[in-house]
Design a protein that fits this description.
The complex is a heterodimer of chains A (about 250) and B (about 160).
Chain A lengths: L2 H22 L8 H29 L5 H6 L10 H4 L5 H22 L5 H29 L3 H14 L11 H8 L9 H15 L22 H9 L1 H5 L6
Chain B lengths: L3 H8 L12 H4 L2 E6 L4 E5 L9 H14 L5 E5 L12 H10 L1 E2 L27 E5 L7 E6 L5 E5 L4
Parallel strand pairs in B: 2-3, 4-7
Antiparallel strand pairs in B: 1-2, 5-6, 6-7
The chains are: A mainly alpha (about 250), B alpha/beta (about 160).
Chain lengths: ~250, ~160
């Protein structure tokens, strides 16, 4: 087993899993029926991606575990997702802002990963990219509509941006795992990832009349398993069934 | 002696669990069919990563082939090449329209942000004076539209490429 390889796949997988779970919390609580359906549809895509990715990670580990084992039976420090995706839903604007910041990053990442030397990753990226494009279109349109909407909606989504901006530096986090993956051709060159992301983000914020906060204080740690307190609550709910009734199926 | 063309014909009797008007062949999710004359091996691909119908499609295929006398049928899942709505057959597109679901239109790449929403003609009255209500509809593969002329609300099978 190549530990860096497993870690790398878990980082992408856990982003999908945790954000998918977060979005699913909106089921039955959406501000309008169409958005309730949209958010749960996006959650479904993300959980589907997480399933493929976690199955792949489990196969790479070669310990006889399944994707489900990885989803439901790890401890918080073993999750590798971005701090951004575990942040609470807040109001609808906060959820759309979190989604937009993530989707803008994800589309570029998946585009690049299509040429990964890990054939399974390339296949999952090719498949997921088609879905992620729809997610980005949806989230960017809402950011614009709310930002360039009423005074109330503008102020609230600007506040969401102020809150979430500190977690965006982590999108471009790179360490020895990334170096090793790049050398193996599994992770294509991402040097322009940030530049491209900023281009999309600036373009949309411009239309949305939103201002990027000048406070440059940034927080990271998710890629190394150091999470905010919010992840523990997500896991408590997500893992409850498997912890209470080990090996139960339906 | 079972042939691959027998199996393809039988698969046309297996309908999609979410859009029963389409068969799995119309939908283009059957990627390959092999047989040694007795047993069968079939490869399918999901429409969307989280498509909840895949397991059911697999079970229905196995059940259908059993009904036709093929006792050993294995079904595998592949992700690449990724499914696209271009694989829905012409017959499938016609069936969708008759059923009241607008078939996929030739859409610009979603990466082009702020592109105008695609014009999707109403499957009921044929008018092009329609509007998108939501990019996401009753299943992962559909969007929600409404006709401004006859007021029919309808599903649109989203273009996926």
């Amino acid at each position: 087993m190549n530990e860096a390889h497993v870690d790398f796949v878990l980082r992408i997988a856990d982003d999908s899993l945790i954000l998918g779970h977060r979005l699913s919390e909106w089921c039955g609580h959406g501000p309008i029926l169409e958005e309730d359906i949209a958010m749960t549809n996006i959650a479904l895509d993300l959980i589907g991606q997480a399933t493929s990715l976690l199955n792949h990670a489990a196969a790479l580990q070669g310990e006889g575990k399944t994707g489900d084992d990885l989803a439901f039976l790890r401890f918080d420090r073993q999750y590798r997702n971005l701090l951004l995706v575990e942040q609470p839903n807040g109001d609808f604007g906060m959820t759309m802002m979190r989604q937009f910041l993530f989707d803008a990053y994800r589309t570029i990442l998946f585009e690049r990963l299509q040429s990964s030397s890990d054939e399974m990753i390339a296949a999952i990226a090719e498949k997921s990219l088609k879905e992620t494009k729809y997610h980005l279109k949806h989230s960017s349109e809402w950011v614009i509509r709310l930002g360039d909407g009423t005074e109330e909606s503008h102020n609230r989504i600007q506040e969401s941006l102020n809150t979430l901006w500190r977690y965006t530096n982590e999108l471009f986090y790179a360490d020895a795992v990334d170096d090793e993956m790049r050398n193996a051709g599994i992770l294509p060159d991402l040097s322009e990832l940030r530049e491209q992301w900023e281009k999309t983000v600036n373009h949309v914020f411009d239309e949305a009349t939103l201002t990027i906060p000048t406070n440059n204080w940034k927080q990271e740690g998710g890629r190394k398993g150091m999470h905010s307190e919010h992840l523990g609550y997500i896991l408590a709910e997500m893992q409850y069934m498997q912890r209470a009734y080990p090996n139960m199926e339906w | 002696m079972v042939t691959t063309s027998d199996i393809w014909r039988w698969l046309e009797e297996v309908s999609d669990p979410e859009i029963p008007v389409l068969t799995v062949v119309d939908l283009g999710v059957i990627r390959s069919v092999e047989t040694d004359g007795t047993n069968a091996h079939i490869v399918i691909t999901p429409t969307y990563s989280g498509c909840p119908a895949m397991k059911m499609i697999e079970d229905q295929i196995i059940e259908k082939l059993k009904e036709k006398g093929v006792d050993m049928c294995t079904v595998d899942l592949t992700l690449s090449p990724a499914w696209t709505t271009d694989w829905i057959t012409e017959e499938g597109k016609n069936k969708l329209r008759e059923y009241g679901i607008a078939p996929p239109e030739n859409e610009p790449d979603k990466m082009v942000l702020f592109a105008k929403p695609t014009v999707v003609p109403c499957p009921k009255c044929g008018s092009s004076n329609t509007r998108m209500i939501s990019l996401f509809g009753s299943t992962a593969c559909k969007a929600h539209y409404q006709c401004n002329d006859c007021l029919e609300p309808y599903d649109y099978f989203k273009c996926l490429r």
